[in-house]
């Protein structure tokens, strides 16, 4: 890893790591006696480990100029491994908290092990740990190939990837200690938020540098989505996390906004974290890996334009549907509802474009679980966006809001769409990255697929049932015109569904563990005889080959992969 | 030039694409969020509303720390069944001093916007210590450490100061006396208790919330906070006509059995 950095990059890495050590040290000192202190020690430790890592390879010979003839894929490889580690951690905690709702005493008498602190470890672990690492890893892979250029240097991608994971680590460890802003999906406190801004701006500049150096006249559609993901998440993150720390020696801060303005800002953030983190980024993934795996070009260039700009424009209006019938002014609720319904058009344009791309490759979908992961992802994307538009209608929302239906909807999207497209893309990318013929075991990919699908269906059906029962029980009146059920009646009715949900989640977790094992074995064991053959394949980068005016809507940009 | 023709050119320019994405994505937020700060009717007037005492604020921070907001909302919607179950629907002004708001998004447990003074302190202490002691079917976690942990009060002045910077009207006196006021609110008949009534109003609840006046625990703070929920201003209980800016949504009748 260090051996591939030039000497000047190694020196820059040491300087950056030194700054991180100093940052950690100052946090540890200033935060002595506060929860900020232990967070400082984590930063300090990460910095020191990094310093040792760089020093251990500092005197290795410099890489030759021939490195510039190949894509730089090591950050993608590490990113995929990190994504799988976070997937297993995040989903394990998810199963744990799901079980706690059925059996609340299955825990320890300690703050870190209580539901309220574990839940954000689950949500951040899967969204930011698993999803974020997968997005960063695949974006590095896709941007190089669709721009037919190499990453501009070898240090920046490492800074982005590892810096991002430091953020995830600060977030998860902070929740266990009790550090949180309480803003859903934006729980990390001010110091971690500032660090993420630094990492994120670097990520954006890196992406822009690659686009500027591209040898394709057109920017391929996957890059539009990755760019929108990076840009809009930056805007959302900065605005929603504006806060006043009580001092530089404390982890605690107070949000700049309060009450209704804070609620609107938070759900403008929250809904668009779904839109631009969990949708746009993963659509970028889909627009590259699905056509590549299917061997078919994207069905329609025009549909991809319509859906991209529709999603970018409409989604930003939709957040207020989280606040129907609340103290948020009525006109904002109505705007949110209207745009949420309109959002169905670009969403289904994307899902349809993806499924039509498979025309002519359905036999592959039947035989290849990797492609089937992507196909099912597109189907769930279509289903959950329909459900989302439906639930945003005010009168539907009066029933569904505050219930498990919302939880079911989120997981239809998160398990069915986000995780499925990610697993499909990872199973496609791992053999390409590690120069293997195929995954270690196709049967384990099959097993993972069916576990994931079964787990998702069990989960979603359980939550639909519990959510609708809950919503109906809360508003049912008896003959004398009084509420028929107490709150605790509705909670008791949830018990069987909470057990079913934990089982569904467990299926999904087992699938992810199998996936992690399969990926690990693919990396470790090269199939006999295949290694030599694969290494003879021409390296795709800078090999020329395609004429410069290839239309941007043809995804198969490089021969030889 | 057709739309697609224009796009055919746009997608060849990295900076152009970046600017277009930022412009198109900014509109929704600008239209929906910016006016909430400028339109006066967005937040009703409640001149008699008081701020959180240091003890209540500390309790609120523990509520946040333990993630209570993940299962309890603090926002009663303008729906008949919610008003009958939880009380008058929530007004925007009631969370005017909430940095951040804790409206919540999920009711695994019931709404807490008006839980204040509905249950006794003893009930809350027993319930937080182990919910299944008082509600056998409950799935809420037991927060036994709240009774064990002494409340950290030394930096409460800094908390009030930070809140003043973001717009909560704490006075210099409140900031200077924050730790003493936190102690006094849970220690009736002490000089510190008198200070609380003086600074935050005589209606402020001063009680030994965990029934141990000598010792200030995290339990004191959480119970003090829960007991003030929905009681910082009585504005929501007044007839609608009395409000300077009535809520925009009439109570909707939902279909019942």
Quick gist of this model?
Chain A is mostly helical and 561 residues long. Chain A has 18 helices and two strands.
Overview of the molecule:
The complex is a heterodimer of chains A (561) and B (257). Chain A has 561 residues and is mainly α. Chain A folds into two domains: 1-60; 74-477 and 485-528, Cytochrome C Oxidase, Chain A. Chain A has helices at residues 7-30, 36-56, 74-102, 115-147, 156-177, 190-212, 221-240, 259-294, 301-314, 330-342, 344-357, 362-367, 369-391, 394-400, 404-433, 442-475, 487-524, 530-535; strands spanning 243-245, 253-255. The longest helix of chain A is centred in the C-terminal third of the chain and has 38 residues, at 487-524. The radius of gyration of chain A is 24 Å and the shape is globular. Mean pLDDT of chain A is 93; it is low at 531-561. With 257 residues, chain B is mostly helical. Chain B folds into two domains: 2-38, no CATH class; 46-182 and 215-245, Cytochrome Bc1 Complex, Chain D, domain 2. In chain B, 44% of the residues lie in helices and 0% in strands. Chain B contains twelve helices and no strands. Chain B has helices at residues 3-10, 14-38, 54-65, 80-86, 121-129, 131-134, 145-148, 156-165, 172-176, 178-185, 191-200, 218-228. Chain B is elongated. The N and C termini of chain B lie far apart (59 Å). The relative contact order of chain B is 0.18. Mean pLDDT of chain B is 92; it is low at 241-247 and 252-257. The chains are: A mainly alpha (561), B mainly alpha (257). At the A-B interface, α3, α4, α6, α7 and β2 of A face α1, α2, α3, α4 and α8 of B.
What tags apply to this protein structure?
heterodimer, A: 561 residues, mainly alpha, Cytochrome C Oxidase, Chain A, 2 domains, two-stranded antiparallel sheet, 18 helices, 2 strands, globular, disordered C terminus, B: 257 residues, Cytochrome Bc1 Complex, Chain D, domain 2
């Amino acid at each position: 890893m260090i051996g591939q950095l030039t000497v000047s990059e190694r020196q820059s890495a040491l300087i950056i790591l030194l700054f991180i050590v100093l940052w950690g040290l100052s946090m540890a000192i200033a935060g002595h006696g506060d929860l900020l202190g232990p967070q400082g020690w984590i930063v300090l430790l990460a910095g020191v480990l990094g310093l040792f890592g760089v020093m251990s390879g500092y005197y290795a010979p410099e890489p030759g100029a021939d490195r510039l003839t190949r894509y730089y894929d090591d950050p993608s490889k590490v990113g995929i491994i990190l994504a799988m580690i976070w997937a297993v951690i995040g989903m394990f905690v998810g199963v744990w908290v799901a079980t706690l709702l059925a059996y609340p005493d299955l825990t320890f008498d300690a703050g870190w092990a209580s539901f309220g602190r574990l839940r954000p470890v689950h949500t951040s672990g899967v969204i930011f740990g698993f999803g974020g690492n997968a997005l960063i890893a695949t974006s590095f892979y896709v941007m190089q190939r669709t721009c037919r250029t190499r990453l501009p240097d070898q240090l920046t991608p490492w800074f982005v990837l590892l810096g991002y994971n430091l953020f995830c680590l600060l977030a998860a460890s902070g929740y266990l200690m009790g550090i949180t802003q309480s803003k859903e999906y934006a729980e990390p406190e001010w110091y971690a938020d500032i660090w993420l801004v630094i990492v994120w701006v670097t990520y954006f500049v890196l992406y822009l540098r690659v686009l500027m150096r591209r040898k394709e006249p057109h920017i391929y559609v996957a890059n539009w989505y990755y760019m929108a993901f990076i840009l809009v998440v930056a805007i959302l993150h900065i605005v929603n996390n504006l806060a006043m720390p009580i001092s530089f020696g404390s982890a605690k801060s107070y949000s700049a906004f309060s009450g209704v303005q804070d609620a609107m800002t938070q759900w403008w953030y929250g809904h668009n974290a779904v839109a631009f983190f969990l949708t746009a980024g993963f659509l970028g993934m889909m627009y590259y890996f699905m056509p590549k795996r299917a061997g078919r070009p994207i069905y329609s260039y025009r549909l991809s334009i319509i859906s991209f700009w529709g999603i970018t424009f409409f989604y930003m209006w939709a957040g207020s549907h989280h606040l129907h019938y609340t103290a948020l002014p009525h006109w904002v609720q109505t705007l949110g509802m209207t745009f949420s319904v309109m959002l169905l058009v670009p969403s289904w344009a994307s899902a349809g474009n993806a499924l039509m791309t498979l025309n002519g490759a359905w036999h592959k979908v039947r035989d290849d679980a990797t492609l089937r992961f992507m196909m099912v992802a597109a189907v769930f994307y279509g289903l959950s966006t329909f459900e989302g538009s439906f639930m945003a209608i005010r009168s539907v929302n009066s029933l569904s809001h505050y219930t498990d239906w919302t939880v079911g909807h989120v997981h239809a999207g998160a398990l069915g769409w986000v995780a499925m497209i990610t697993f499909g893309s990872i199973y496609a990318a791992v053999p390409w990255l590690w120069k293997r013929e195929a995954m270690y075991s196709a049967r384990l990919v099959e097993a993972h697929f069916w576990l994931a699908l079964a787990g998702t269906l069990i989960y979603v059906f359980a939550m639909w049932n519990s959510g609708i029962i809950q919503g109906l029980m809360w508003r049912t009146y008896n003959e004398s015109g009084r509420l028929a059920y107490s709150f605790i009646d509705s909670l008791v009715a949830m018990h069987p569904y909470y057990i079913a949900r934990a089982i569904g989640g467990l299926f999904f977790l087992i699938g992810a563990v199998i996936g992690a094992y399969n990926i690990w074995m693919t990396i470790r064991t090269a199939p006999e005889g295949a290694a030599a053959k694969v290494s003879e394949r021409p390296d795709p980068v800078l090999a020329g080959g395609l004429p410069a005016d290839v239309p941007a809507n043809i995804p198969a940009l490089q021969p030889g992969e | 030039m057709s739309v697609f023709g224009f796009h055919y050119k746009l997608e060849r320019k990295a900076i152009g694409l970046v600017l277009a994405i930022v412009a198109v994505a900014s509109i929704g937020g600008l239209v929906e969020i910016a006016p909430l700060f400028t339109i006066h009717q967005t937040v009703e007037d409640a001149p008699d509303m008081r701020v959180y005492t240091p003890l209540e604020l500390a309790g609120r921070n523990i509520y946040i720390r333990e993630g209570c907001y993940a299962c309890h909302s603090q926002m009663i919607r303008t729906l008949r069944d919610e008003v009958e179950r939880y009380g008058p629907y929530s007004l925007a002004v009631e969370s005017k001093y909430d940095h951040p708001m804790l409206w919540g998004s999920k009711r695994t447990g019931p709404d807490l916007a008006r839980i204040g003074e509905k249950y006794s302190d003893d009930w809350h202490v027993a319930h937080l210590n182990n919910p299944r002691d008082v509600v056998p079917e409950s799935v809420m976690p037991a927060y036994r450490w709240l009774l064990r942990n002494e409340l950290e009060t030394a930096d409460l002045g800094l908390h009030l100061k930070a809140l003043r910077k973001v717009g909560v009207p704490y006075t210099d006196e409140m900031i200077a006396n924050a730790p003493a006021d936190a102690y006094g609110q849970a220690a009736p008949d002490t000089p510190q208790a008198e200070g609380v009534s003086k600074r935050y109003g005589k209606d402020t609840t001063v009680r030994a919330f965990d029934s141990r006046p000598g010792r200030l625990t995290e339990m004191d703070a959480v119970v003090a906070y829960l007991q003030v929920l929905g009681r910082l201003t009585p504005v929501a209980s007044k007839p609608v006509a009395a409000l300077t800016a009535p809520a925009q949504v009439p109570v909707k009748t939902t279909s019942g059995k």
